[in-house]
Design a protein that fits this description.
This protein is mostly helical. Helices cover 73% and strands 0% of the residues. It has twelve helices and no strands. The protein is extended and about 75 Å long. The N and C termini lie far apart (118 Å).
């Protein structure tokens, strides 16, 4: 006579526990969600590594403004376009105002980043102002307002804004590409070193030959520099 199959309470308990949701994993994921929700929308938009739609749109708009501003600065150095000076000045005023607003916004939300949050609200913002990115922004933006308020002519540092493009484009895609370029340069550093030495050697040899084979005497008078 076959014996009836007895289901132990241990097996039943294990089956019930396997059907229950893993509360530990939920508890472990919740701090991450809480951490991501701590950042404000403004910080997310200004963060160059953010993948949100607002951040991507902001990066594209600022890149276009920076390139346009640098182009206007290059055109303003042409003497033939001096009659457009008022247009160049107005463009500089508008772009400087935009960059000043962005600088203040970054200064407000910089303490949401861990590296500045640990110093507190005041010292953290001071540390951000002393960073190389913030210094480039300040030197490229505020001389216009200082000259406007004080009347003291200051050197134009608008060309520094082109370096902001490198900071704005520090997204994950660009970071991966730059890492790939860095690896290529690292593994081929010996070949590049030899190529650089050969290039310098050829420049020196060519310069010496041109010096000793230069026209002299009456022949030099007929040579147009």
């Amino acid at each position: 006579m076959p014996r009836p199959k007895v289901v132990s309470s241990k097996t039943t308990a294990e089956g019930e526990s396997s059907n229950k949701p893993n509360s530990l994993s939920i508890d472990q994921e919740s701090p991450k969600n809480q951490t991501s929700s701590r950042h404000s929308q403004l910080y997310t938009t200004l963060n160059p590594k953010s993948q949100s739609q607002s951040a991507i749109i902001f990066q594209k708009i600022m890149t276009v403004i920076i390139l346009f501003d640098v182009l206007v600065y290059i055109l303003s150095t042409e003497e033939d376009l001096s009659h457009f000076a008022y247009v160049f000045y107005g463009t500089e005023a508008v772009t400087s105002t935009i960059f000043a607003i962005e600088y203040i916004a970054r200064l407000v939300v910089c303490t949401e980043k861990k590296c500045y949050a640990r110093y507190g609200p005041i010292r953290g913002r001071w540390m951000y102002m002393c960073s190389h990115n913030a210094l480039i922004d300040a030197f490229a933006t505020f001389p216009f307002f200082i000259e406007l308020l004080s009347g003291i002519p200051l050197p134009t540092l608008t060309y520094l804004r082109v370096f902001r493009v490198l900071r704005i484009t520090r997204t994950r895609a660009y970071s991966k590409s730059m890492d790939a370029v860095g690896r290529v340069l690292y593994y081929n550093r010996e070949i590049l070193y030899v190529a650089a030495v050969l290039g310098m050697y050829l420049v020196v040899v060519t310069s010496i030959l041109m010096y000793y084979l230069r026209p002299r005497g009456k022949d030099a008078e007929n040579v147009d520099d």
